[in-house]
C-alpha cells in the first residue's frame, strides 16, 4: 500500500527480490510506501495479541507526511489490518474521533495499547500542531531504548551460554567419566587418596542419583522462576544490586539516561516541567523515585530544576553542568536529550568493557574447573604407574 500525490492511497501488487527493494521499484516512484506484505503468507494475529505501537506510529507518520489527515490515516490502517487486534483498536479510535473527541483522548481510552508517555506526546502536539514531528520524536525515543536494551541483552547471552556449556561439561565429567575411572581403581584394589577421593565420591553420588538430581534441578529452576516473578522478590534483588558499589552506580546511570531522555522528549513536546516529572516517576526505580518527589517539591518552592535534581540525587557532575546550561539558554529539553545521549554512549562503553573483561575471566574459571577435574582424575593413575615401575 502506498500514497501518491493527487491519487491518494493505492493498493498495488508488485514483485521484488526482497522487501528492502520494494520502494525502489519504478511503479512506486513518487509515492510513499505505507505498508507491505508478502503474498502467500498468513500472519498469525490473535485477538489477544499485542498492539504493535512502533509499527503503528511509523505507518501513521508516513501517512501524515504524505498529506492525509489523522482520520484518513487511521481509516487506511484499519482497512489494511482487518480482523486483527490492530483493526479493533483503530476502529475504536475512529469511533471516538467521529464523536468529536481529540486523538489524545481517544488514545487514553486504550491504556493497554498506548502508554501515558505516548498519550502525553500526542496531546502536546495537538496544542502546537506538529504531530508528525512529535511522532518522529517518539520513534527516536523508542529506538534508542530498544537499542540500549538489545546491547545489554546481547552482552549477557555469551556469558550465559559459556556458563551453561561449562556446567554441562562438568556434570558429564562427574557423572559419567569419573565413575568409569573409579572402576579402574576398584580392579586394582587401591582407593584414591586426598582430594581425588572426594572427587570420586561426588562422581559416584551423581551417577547413582542422576534421575533424582535432574528432577531436583528442574524443580529448583521452576521455583527460582516463580520466586523472581514476585514483585517483592525482584525489588529485594534490585535493592541488593544497588548496594554493590560499582554495580549500583552503573545501574543508576542506566535509569538516569532513560529519565533524561524521557524528560527531554516531553519538554520538547511542550509539556510543563512539573507535569513531565510527575509522568516520568513510574520509569524510575524505588531508589530514585523518592529523590524525584523531593525534586518536584523543591521546584514548587521556586528552586531551579538543576538544583532540585542535584538535591534529589538525579544528576551527575557532568549532567548537572549541562542541565544548568539548558536552563539558562531556555533549551532544557534539548539539553536533557543531549545528556541522555552522552550517558547512552557511556553505558555502551561500559557494556563493551564488561564483555571484554568478563568473558575471558569466565572462560579461565570454567577451564580451571574442568582442568582441575581432569588433573584429579589422572593423579591416582600416575601413582599406579609409579608403583608398577
Account of the protein in words:
Mean pLDDT is 78; it is low at 39-48. The protein is 73% helix and 2% strand. It folds into 2 domains: 1-14 and 47-114; 130-389, Type II secretion system (T2SS), domain F (Receptor-associated Protein), CATH 1.20.81. The chain has 15 helices and 3 strands. α10 (245-268) runs antiparallel to α15 (332-388). The protein is elongated, with a radius of gyration of 30 Å. A 3-stranded antiparallel β-sheet has the order 2-1-3, with no helix packed on it. The chain has 389 residues and is mainly α.
Keywords for this entry:
389 residues; mainly alpha; Receptor-associated Protein; 2 domains; three-stranded antiparallel β-sheet; 15 helices
Q: SSE layout and pairings?
A:
Layout: E1 2-4, E2 8-10, E3 32-33, H1 53-65, H2 70-80, H3 85-98, H4 103-108, H5 116-128, H6 131-188, H7 195-208, H8 210-228, H9 231-243, H10 245-268, H11 273-279, H12 286-300, H13 305-311, H14 317-329, H15 332-388
Antiparallel strand pairs: 1-2, 1-3
Helix pairs in contact: 1-2, 1-6, 2-3, 5-6, 6-7, 6-10, 6-15, 7-15, 10-15, 12-13, 13-14, 14-15
